[in-house]
């Protein structure tokens, strides 16, 4: 008897995300053995949780496959996405598979021009209506005792004819389709169900996703809440976005938002408010227009301050000189600049700011080439000298400061060094500090940039200084609007009721740069129509730009749930910064523990939450534990000091907050997939993966013993939890009643306790 396996191949995600419905991993593919005599769960790498995460090789069995490579090309134009997906998969089982493609759609007619090619041969696809598809999914889930397909329940389905795949054979499948993307708060919202690739017996060797956007109007904001992407903007009407992964198990769908418009700056606001009785969350995106390379840009002042102390000798100093040369070669006509080199003595390129032209560029390059390392480290004197050259506040001013050591000459008290720099910064210059190696006073650098409107970066011993500085300067080299301020005016929030928004991060916005996108997250009290005003200087002229926004009273779904966790990540970074620079505060420590537990945001000081034996509800004990661990912040230099400030900065500057779909939950951390928690080790200065904390949709799940527990479930709720037998009628009725609000959290491979609509359930 031939074995029929329906395959909606994990990943090929080609499973049409229909109308780009956010967070809808509804178009996915998986190999499913529907032989009446066998129960074969969907293929996924297996890990065990105790005492360590250890991959267990899967022997050749019937009905398993792996995705070898996934390539996705997308063209977005006028809200229409044309997608081509190519996937290579291998039958890793011991017998021939008879497979068919099955991929569900959330909406009939959402996808147009569907073409499926298998090794170059076209296969027809039949559309099954939602009820017929639901019955098929329910039958498959019951038979294979595998809940992973629950997320497809209630969707329509395309099904192809059967084709054979011999054991060990590789097949290349291509899918082409077009679809109309939805609008989300004025932004075009594209979703590709990348998480389908989790159904594979091995990590995917290569994931390559390329998206090109073409628009008749100027493209303003381009943002991915799910992945860290590379964005290139060749001009105002084109954008190229790419994501590449190797040997990973994608655990979250790829999502991309973009908007178009006219004007100097474009802005959009996205909101999320799960509870109308509590404050909501918002994300403000703002991008300056993209100018052609030959268009005139605002003139600026740039001071380069470089450490040449004895510890910089060798490759470090050559890289530092390369960084200085990069900046000098990328200044623009009309910019003013100077170079300050320091050890125990301080030497400047010229006694005053120089106008950048070909002559001064060559002279400055010669000055840099002639520098050599030796002597002590006079940080305070160098900063005061560099800032002393800046006296004109009518144009943007920047200081790029490099050091690899502790202050050993001149003033050595960190508080006095910071106070002196602040007193000498008379033009609101932005200071960007680079700490090189592990022998820097990282707390001093963080204080220095916080008081001087800037940002700190840390260059590890195995990292390239020139690459780090070049990357930063490429981002800040072209200021568009300076001295920026942002105002939020609500129609329903009179001035006497106080600020309508609060706890916005970053809290201090100074400049907008060409090619850089500003993203601000915050909380809001009132709802309804609002006006956002972005004010600042463009050149030497004051400008104000107004944008309409709508703040929802209550969100109808979890489409924008990522905003809540993104805000929490930045808030945690801000809490750590305040504790680090101003000392421990009881309320801040308690809030740190609560946010870490609720949102699964692990830090070196709250990593104990990941302990399966820890009681995440014992706030008093966890608070005391965090208080003790926060003592590590007393270490300002060395590997631990740098690791802590780098980890803190990463949270403060977080740009996305991916979660996972829960199917195959035990495998995500092993595959380094999104949603699996991690934190930075202070002993080794590297990321540590955690398999006992996972972010799924809008929830955090903690592994306790042999099951997963929703962090929002209280002790009282857990005692009254309703026991539901998996794959029973009651089990499937919950999915029918609550839809994705339930299905997202019910397709775990292992026992789980979860809150759904105010009631705790155990599966």
Question: What can you tell me about this protein's structure?
Answer:
The chain is an alpha+beta fold and 763 residues long. It has 4 domains: 4-260, Immunoglobulin-like; 276-290 and 480-551, Immunoglobulin-like, CATH 2.60.40; 301-477, Rossmann fold, CATH 3.40.50; 562-705, no CATH class. Helix content is 22%, strand content 36%. The strands form 8 sheets. The protein has an 8-stranded mixed sheet, with no helix packed on it. A hairpin with a 2-residue loop joins strand 5 (65-77) and strand 6. Helix 2 packs parallel to helix 7 (465-476), helix 4 (379-388) runs parallel beside helix 5 and helix 8 runs antiparallel to helix 9 (586-599). The two termini are 35 Å apart. The model is unreliable at 1-29, 47-60 and 664-674 (pLDDT under 50).
Descriptive labels:
single chain, 763 residues, alpha+beta, Immunoglobulin-like, Rossmann fold, eight-stranded mixed β-sheet, 14 helices, 22% helix
Structure described in brief:
The protein is α+β, with helices and mostly antiparallel strands and 763 residues long. It is built from 14 helices and 42 strands.
The CATH class of the largest domain: Mainly Beta
Largest sheet data? 8 strands, mixed
Helix tally equals: 14
Report the strand count.
42
Mean pLDDT: 84
CA radius of gyration: 28 Å
């Amino acid at each position: 008897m031939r074995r029929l396996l329906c395959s909606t191949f994990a990943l090929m995600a080609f499973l049409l995300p229909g109308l780009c419905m956010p967070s809808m991993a509804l178009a996915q593919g998986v190999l499913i053995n529907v032989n009446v005599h066998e129960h074969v769960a969907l293929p996924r790498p297996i890990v065990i949780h105790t005492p360590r995460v250890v991959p267990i090789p899967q022997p050749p069995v019937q009905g398993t496959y792996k995705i070898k490579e996934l390539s996705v090309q997308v063209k977005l134009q006028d809200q229409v996405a044309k997608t081509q997906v190519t996937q290579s998969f291998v039958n890793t089982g011991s017998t021939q598979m008879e497979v068919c493609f099955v991929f569900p759609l959330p909406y009939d007619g959402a996808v147009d021009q569907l073409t499926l090619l298998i090794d170059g041969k076209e296969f027809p696809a039949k559309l099954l209506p939602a009820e017929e598809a639901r019955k098929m999914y329910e039958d498959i889930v019951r038979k294979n005792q595998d809940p992973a397909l629950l997320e497809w329940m209630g969707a329509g389905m395309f099904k192809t004819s059967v084709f054979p795949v011999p054991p060990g054979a590789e097949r290349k499948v291509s899918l082409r389709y077009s679809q109309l993307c939805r609008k989300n708060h004025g932004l075009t919202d594209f979703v590709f169900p990348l998480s389908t690739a989790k159904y594979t017996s091995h990590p995917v060797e290569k994931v390559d996703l390329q998206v090109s956007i073409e628009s008749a109007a100027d493209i303003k904001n381009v943002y991915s809440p799910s992945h860290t992407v590379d964005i290139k903007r060749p001009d105002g009407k084109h954008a190229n976005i790419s994501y590449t992964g190797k040997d990973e198990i994608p655990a979250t769908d790829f999502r991309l938002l973009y908007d178009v418009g006219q004007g100097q700056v474009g802005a959009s606001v996205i909101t999320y408010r799960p509870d109308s009785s509590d404050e909501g969350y918002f994300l403000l995106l703002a991008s300056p227009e993209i100018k052609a390379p030959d268009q005139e840009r605002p003139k600026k002042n740039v001071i380069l301050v470089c450490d040449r102390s004895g510890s910089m000798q060798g490759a470090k100093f050559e890289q530092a000189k390369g960084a200085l040369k990069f900046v000098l070669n990328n200044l623009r006509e009309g910019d003013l600049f100077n170079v300050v080199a320091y050890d125990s003595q301080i030497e400047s390129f010229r006694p005053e700011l120089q106008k950048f032209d070909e002559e001064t560029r060559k002279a400055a390059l010669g000055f840099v080439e002639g520098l050599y390392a030796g002597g002590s480290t006079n940080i305070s004197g160098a900063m005061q000298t560099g800032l002393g050259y800046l006296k004109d506040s009518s144009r943007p001013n920047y200081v790029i400061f490099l050091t690899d050591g502790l202050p050993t000459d001149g003033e050595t008290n960190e508080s006095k060094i910071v106070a002196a720099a602040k007193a000498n910064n008379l033009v609101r210059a932005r200071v960007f500090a680079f700490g090189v190696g592990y022998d820097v006073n990282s707390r001093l650098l963080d204080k220095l940039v916080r008081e001087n409107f800037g940002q700190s970066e840390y260059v590890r011993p195995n990292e390239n200084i020139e690459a780090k500085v070049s990357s930063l300067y490429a981002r800040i080299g072209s200021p568009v609007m300076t001295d920026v301020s942002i105002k939020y005016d609500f129609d329903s929030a009179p001035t006497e009721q106080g600020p309508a928004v609060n706890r916005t991060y970053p809290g201090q916005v100074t400049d907008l740069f060409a090619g850089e996108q500003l993203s601000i997250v915050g909380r809001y009290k009132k709802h309804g129509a609002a006006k956002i005003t972005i004010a600042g200087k463009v050149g030497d002229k004051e400008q104000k730009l107004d944008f309409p926004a709508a703040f929802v009273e209550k969100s109808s779904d979890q489409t924008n749930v990522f905003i809540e966790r993104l805000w929490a990540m930045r808030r945690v970074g801000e809490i750590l910064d305040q504790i680090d620079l101003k000392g421990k505060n009881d309320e801040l420590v308690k809030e740190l523990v609560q946010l870490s537990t609720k949102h699964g945001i692990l830090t070196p000081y709250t990593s104990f939450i990941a302990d399966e034996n820890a009681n995440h509800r014992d706030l008093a004990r966890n608070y005391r534990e965090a208080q003790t661990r926060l003592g590590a912040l007393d270490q300002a230099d060395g590997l631990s000091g740098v690791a802590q400030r780098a980890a803190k900065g990463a949270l403060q500057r977080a740009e996305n907050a991916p979660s996972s779909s829960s199917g195959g939950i035990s495998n995500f951390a092993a595959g380094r997939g999104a949603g699996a928690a991690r934190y930075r080790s202070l002993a080794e200065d590297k990321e540590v993966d955690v398999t006992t904390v996972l972010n799924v949709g809008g929830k955090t799940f903690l592994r306790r013993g042999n099951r997963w527990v929703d962090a929002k479930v209280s002790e009282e709720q857990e005692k009254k939890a309703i026991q539901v037998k998996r794959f029973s009628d009651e089990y499937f009725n919950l999915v029918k009643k609550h839809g994705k609000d339930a299905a997202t959290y019910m397709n775990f491979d292992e026992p789980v306790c979860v809150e759904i609509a105010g009631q705790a359930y155990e599966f």
